[in-house]
Structure formats: structure tokens, C-alpha cells
Design a protein that fits this description.
Blueprint lengths: L1 H14 L10 E4 L5 E5 L3 E5 L7 E6 L10 E7 L9 E3 L6 H13 L3 E5 L20 H15 L5 E11 L1 H12 L6 E5 L24 E6 L7 H13 L4 E6 L10 H10 L3
Helix pairs in contact: 2-6
Length: 274
């Protein structure tokens, strides 16, 4: 009997690493059994209250105890006219439901998510006319967000594992983050966008990028008419020519928006660069 008990105990011990935390997010089902809504909890903080720089930052930590060095963290940038939310129903335009699926995938796999809202919840200034980007409200907001990450305002985060992703205007902003805050981001995923200064089909690409530009994955729909896939390919080729690790995934059936495969592709790229 003692030998049998010892075998059972050993088997259970070996299985322990396979046990994971339950998802921090909840699903709502329709009458046909399909998921019609995903709700992920989130917290919010307002920065620069009462000024023209005032913005809200949404954020959430994964379930469970943080790793010794803190949670890896993803800075997520919203698209134009589509304010970031941690709860969304199915059948939204621009693959909006897939955005909350991305958030859930990151949280469930041990990544904190920090998502500042764009200017007036409309879009990022990265490709708008401005004499000096560092004089814009976006620069102040993003610099403050990064400062808060480093100071522990969002909880225990790993300063060596900061990633960024975003869609459309937020994709351009993801590129802008790497340019403006070099050395901070470990890897990027740019969805339905291109280089920081580009705007739709108007896209002047630099010939050179910094040698420490983060490894970058591009996700794009072949049917995208708002941001032609050729502009993403141009940035991809520029990074390749500058010997920056990069790849591109183009969905032949998708237009402008998050791909159905974005959750796995975003997580996979970040996991491969942890």
C-alpha cells in the first residue's frame, strides 16, 4: 500500500507543472453555444488630470503570483476611432473582437497589458503634422506611461521584457515607440500599419533604421484598402536590409483589422523573444 501511495504521489508531482491558472477573463455564450462576448477585468488610472494632456490608461496584471523579476508587459496602442476596451462583443468592425482575444491571450499567458488611450480616443499623433514630436501630448503621455511601468505603478513588471503592439493608428504608434524610446522594447508586432510617419498609402520609408531596432512582426490583411499591404512590406524589407529580425504574415481573406490568428501570432512572437 505504501508503494502504491508513493507512486500516486510521484505521478501527481510530475503533473503539477501542467496545472495553470484559470483564465482571468470570462466568456458569454449565445444560444448556439458560440462565444458572443469576452470580458477581461481591467483597472484604470488618469494621468495629467485637468490639463490638455489628460488621458486614461487601462491596465491589468495576469492571475497568480508574479515571477521573481515581475511580469513581462505589453504596451497596447488602439486604432483610430476605436477606443481600447478589455470587454468586447463578437461581430465588431476591424476585427475588434479579436483585439480582446489578443488581450486575453496575453493575460492568460503571463503578460501584463498596459493600454493608454489615444488623443481624444481618436488616434495617435505619430503621423500627423508636427514640428517636433517631443512637443506633442502623445510624447508626454507615452513617456509618462513608460515611467510608470519602471516605477511599479502598474505592479511588479519585468523591466527587461517590455513589448509593444497596436493596430492601424496604434500600429504606426508602435513603430513610433521604438524610434522615440530606443532600448526599451524587446519586440514589436505591428498590425495593419507600417512605419511611424506613414499614413495609409502615403508612406516614405527611411533607408536606414537603428541597429538596435526591436525584432518586428507585421500582421496584415491582403484586402486592406485603408493601409495597403505594400506599405507594411516596404517596412519589412527595410528592416531586412538593415539586418533587423523581422517577419510578415498576410491573411489573404482579411481587410483592415485584427486577424483571426492575431492572438496566437502576437503571443508567439513575444514568447520567442523573451
Amino acid at each position: 500500500m505504501k508503494t502504491f501511495s508513493a507512486v500516486i504521489l510521484l505521478a501527481l508531482t510530475l503533473l503539477l507543472p501542467l496545472v495553470t491558472e484559470a483564465s482571468i477573463c470570462n466568456e458569454q455564450y449565445g444560444t448556439d453555444g458560440t462565444v458572443i462576448w469576452i470580458h477581461c477585468p481591467r483597472k484604470a488610472v488618469t494621468i495629467f488630470p485637468g490639463t490638455r494632456y489628460q488621458r486614461e490608461i487601462l491596465w491589468q496584471l495576469p492571475a497568480g503570483k508574479a515571477p521573481k523579476d515581475g511580469w513581462p508587459v505589453v504596451l497596447l496602442s488602439q486604432g483610430s476611432w476605436f477606443p481600447i476596451e478589455f470587454s468586447r462583443p463578437r461581430n465588431l468592425p476591424f476585427g475588434g473582437f479579436n483585439e480582446v482575444r489578443v488581450i486575453r491571450e496575453l493575460l492568460d499567458n503571463g503578460y501584463a497589458v498596459v493600454a493608454p488611450r489615444a488623443t481624444l480616443n481618436v488616434g495617435w499623433i505619430t503621423n500627423m503634422p508636427h514640428p517636433n514630436y517631443k512637443f506633442t501630448s502623445d510624447y508626454s503621455v507615452l513617456a509618462k506611461t513608460i515611467e510608470m511601468i519602471f516605477s511599479g505603478k502598474f505592479g511588479p513588471l519585468d523591466m527587461q521584457k517590455i513589448f509593444a503592439t497596436g493596430i492601424s493608428s496604434g500600429g504606426y504608434n508602435t513603430s513610433r515607440l521604438a524610434i522615440t524610446f530606443p532600448g526599451i522594447f524587446r519586440a514589436l508586432v505591428i498590425q495593419s500599419a507600417s512605419y511611424a510617419n506613414c499614413l495609409g498609402p502615403v508612406c516614405m520609408m527611411p533607408k536606414k533604421v537603428s541597429s538596435d531596432h526591436p525584432p518586428t512582426r507585421f500582421l496584415h490583411g491582403a484586402l486592406d484598402v485603408a493601409v495597403p499591404v505594400a506599405t507594411a512590406r516596404a517596412f519589412y524589407e527595410t528592416l531586412r536590409e538593415n539586418r533587423i529580425e523581422t517577419d510578415i504574415v498576410v491573411d489573404p481573406k482579411t481587410g483592415h483589422g485584427w486577424l483571426d490568428s492575431s492572438p496566437e501570432l502576437v503571443l508567439g512572437w513575444f514568447e520567442s523573444h523573451r
